[in-house]
Protein 1
Amino acid sequence: MAPATDMAWCPGCGNLMLHHAVKSALHELHIERKNLVMVSGIGQAAKSPQYINANMFNGLHGRALPAALGIKLSNRNLVVVVESGDGDMYGEGGNHFIHAIRRNLDVTVIVHNNMVYGLTKGQASPTSQRGMITPVQLNGVLLEPFNPLAVALAMNAPFVARAYAADVEETKEMIKQAITFRGFSLVDVFQPCVVFNKVNTYQWFKENTCYLPKNHDTRDRIAAFGLAIGPGKLPLGIFYRNEERDIYEDLLGIGNTPLYQKEAPDEKAFQAMIEAYR
């Protein structure tokens, strides 16, 4: 439990329920605080790690994943969880999102997807629906929304899931599976913004989401992609799992010894290494 503190979220914000799901997942997995690092960027969602009693790194807007990369490569024994919003992760951080999937770093990425920029007063985010009117997009959003699940699946992300913050128990279980998965795991979480998004409300999500059928084969990437781009209600659940991909740390040959415990190479070895890469 984090020490008592004032939370900078509005009453009724979906961040509150998702925060509860994340804390419950971490507690049930019995992860020691010394082995956990929470990483975020900038935004309302990115404040989440500040309310957890754990190691954390709060980076620049859109730059949570590069920080997570450095942390994980310096000590692969750490559990690294990235938690940020749809604007931070898919907008400013979109390039890093794509290449983190390419590398298949062993981190968990939890995205608070409220389809709006909440910190900067309600302009459209990459996932805002077409036609949504905001204080900036006065005539409505013109562009098709970014589809994070389809992009992740196209890049062969090995664990792809989508949850709904109001379903705390189901969200918690998906997060637990994501954290224990070996490789890049994405949990995109729908959550209402009660102040700045009057379209995608609790009632809207209730009416426009459904859970994946029980017979869905999470090993079938093509079927998962079809569900991610298909018409009708937006499915929730684990779309895809691929245990076969090599993780980045193994490809680099990084052992389990944390970087700070390794002896620095002597000068001759260091110069030889530099020459090898010229």
Protein 2
Amino acid sequence: MAWLGQTFYLGGYFFWVGLWLAHHPVFGSNFAMHRDVWLRARDRVHRERSDIHDDLDLSMNLDPAVQVRYEHTLRVGVSGRPFATWSGFARRVRWGFRTLLQDWPEDTPWRRRAARHRLRVRT
């Protein structure tokens, strides 16, 4: 079960969401950020909502200039709760899709890529 979770659930999260965001997503169990990054993002995240993934919401609301680095050697154990029941797993999948689509069509993968590209061209 741990291999399935690591390979498909977390692996899928980092791969597919990374494509959507045009940068690595943060992962709630194991990430850190500078204070100034939070100060720029805190008014854009949807802290009042309990039906979305908060770490994904944060990932989506980071300033395009923020660089998210993924360090594969930093490891932390995570709970198997998402796999305890089918309904729990389905709820988390719904949260993920709801989070990705909450600002659609203003915020799309194509617009994210274009914003990051403009930043690279300027620097």
Protein 3
Amino acid sequence: MNNRALAVRLGALTLVAAIAQPVLAGGGVKATTKYDGERPKRTVVKMDADQYCAKANDKKVGSQEAIVNKDGTVRNVIVYVKDGLGDAEFEAPTDKALLNQEGCMYKPHVQSLQTKQPMMVKNSDSTLHNIHSFAEKQRAFNFAQPQKGDEKEVTFTREEIVKVKCDVHPWMSAYVGVFPHPFHSVTGKEGGCELSDLPAGEYTVVAWHETFGEVEQKVTVAEGEAAEVEFVFKAK
């Protein structure tokens, strides 16, 4: 067999071997969050200090800091992997997260993103807002957006859950969870969320809430399967 024929044969064997390798699908975590206690009552956000804000919403706006559904599930909980990824590094997404000021409220109230992922801060109101982050592990930002349509891009470089407030309107607050990996999410209206494409392994997963604190669990993720986990916040 000449060298060319040998090379062709070896190339074909390599291709067959590559095709024969199983494609391993990532697993995940399906999280449900609940509150074990008397359901908190939401209050109406009072915006009378700014006449624009008072007229900006068609309906009354409820408080955001503790939203518990009738079935006990909790909205606006950040669920994230705390431990188990080892020294793995993950490239930051290039798509921009959005923190919008609309109706004199921050939307979304709680979100999560990755370190070095850009976040656009936008003013959709025809009134002055001043955005102030209360970061402890990285440089905080503090800037005004006086005009409707004003935008400013910011990034976070370290892992931290950052509180953001408006210095003009004291009822306006938001939280941004920042993590060095993509395995994080925020519970929606049904009180649940999912961490996708998580490699098989054992992890410590945390559920964090601005009022109820945080709880964590050890979770085992099997290849190609989603582990179902329930986090319960106990009334203090």
Protein 4
Amino acid sequence: MNRSTVDVAEAIGVMAAVAVAVVLLVAGVSKLGRHDGWRAQAAGLGVPSVVAAVVPFVELALGSLLLVQVQRHVVAWFAVALFVLFTALLGVRLAQGRRPPCACFGSLSSTPIGPAHLLRNAVFIALSVAAAVL
């Protein structure tokens, strides 16, 4: 690869990381902003309360690190893992025929989960992979 190709790939990786950072920061802040509502929605999805207590802080930490590009390639893989876990949980609930409200963005989202949530998360996973490898 020539230098300009590498520069373009790097720029795409940085932009993907910033996009993922914004998603994670908005999700974390919205969950903390409406703590009781988030915990109730998370419980409706079957998330153990101890996990629900930690999720917003994990999102904020990963989002902050991605935003400032600290160890972007490594942190982005953690974002991939987080989005894969979220997607798996939604997929299991949908397979069970359950459609509780989405707790994805705390107080910003209360629509029942559906296939669109899986598609949206697939985009987040793709962006996270781009941030990790480019």
